[in-house]
Design a protein that fits this description.
The chain is an all-beta fold. It contains no helices and seven strands.
Length: 109
């Protein structure tokens, strides 16, 4: 697998990955509040805890393998210090854009 990523201002703003049978490309947008995961040193294969701010939008394209659901809306509430208190992430069907479900994350510090 080949993976490329572009970081700007401490945030992953673009990435692409490809193998012999599948590919994926994404662009990402962020707010200016604190991503608590960046301070935890939790590396993972997707580098999803790398950005210093919280993702508010993403645009993805796929080839070969298409996900059944993908996030499309990120709604945060924040405390007085700029850390997220709550995130509601909405998911859609990649093929037709139909809303599928929401996941709520509650942050405690």
């Amino acid at each position: 697998m080949v993976y490329n990523l572009k970081i700007k201002g401490g945030n992953k703003v673009e990435d692409s990955g490809s193998s012999m049978n599948a590919g994926e490309r994404g662009t990402y947008q962020y707010d200016f509040n604190i991503n608590p995961y960046v301070h935890m040193n939790l590396p993972n294969i997707y580098l999803s805890f790398l950005s210093k701010n919280n993702m508010v939008a993403q645009e993805k394209t796929y080839s070969g393998s298409i996900p059944s659901a993908e996030p499309y809306k990120f709604e945060y509430s924040y405390d007085d210090e700029g850390y997220p208190k709550e995130l509601i992430k909405s998911f859609k069907n990649y093929l037709n854009g139909e809303h599928l479900f929401k996941i709520k994350t509650v942050y405690t510090y």
